[in-house]
Amino acid sequence: MSVLTARFDVPLGAHAPRTARHATTAVLTGWGYRDDIWLDQAAVVISELVTNAVRHGGGCVEVSMECHHGRVTLLVADGSSVVPRRRDADSCGGRGLALIEALTTRWGVRDHQGGKQVWADLLPCPAGHRAHRS
């Protein structure tokens, strides 16, 4: 069984989440995922992960994606070793990890080249909405 992978750096700045959303959706569509709601959910997850990396991380932001046996994992690495923690929402934010938890089966953090990599396993794509099986 093959594993599909993709990896790209995201330019830092206010446009980073949008850039990551577009690239992630393009890759997933290229892998055969066609369910619009599922793709929108994947876009929200990557946007939140990248937003957290830009706001609270350090250094460059690297996005990776993996698909194995139909399970898709999104990964975002940055140069900070500070582990994200869920906090109460306020006018400045605090909703990102709650969104990630609602739209994924699980998420976590691992060490990555002196910083960290936050990963999230997406909910399964609805049956019949993926053109190619891995």
Task: Write down the overall mean pLDDT.
Answer: 89
Q: Helix tally? A: 3
Beta-strand residue percentage? 25-35%
How far apart, in Å, are the first and last alpha carbons?
A: 7 Å
The structure class reads alpha+beta
Whole-angstrom Rg = 14 Å
CATH T-level fold name: Heat Shock Protein 90
**Which residue ranges are poorly predicted, with pLDDT under 50 across at least 5 consecutive positions?**
none
Pfam family, one: HATPase_c_2
GO molecular function: protein serine/threonine kinase activity
Organism: Couchioplanes caeruleus subsp. caeruleus
Domain Histidine kinase/HSP90-like ATPase: 18-120
Task: Characterise the protein shown here.
The protein is α+β, with helices and mostly antiparallel strands and 134 residues long. It has a single domain (4-122), classed as Heat Shock Protein 90. 33% of the residues lie in helices and 30% in strands. It has three helices and five strands; from the N terminus they run βααββαββ. It has helices at 16-30, 36-56, 96-103; strands spanning 4-10, 61-68, 71-78, 104-112, 115-122. It has a five-stranded antiparallel beta sheet. β2 and β3 form a beta hairpin. α1 packs antiparallel against α2 (36-56) and α2 packs antiparallel against α3 (96-103). It starts with a strand and ends in a 12-residue tail after the last strand. The model has no long low-confidence stretch (mean pLDDT 89).
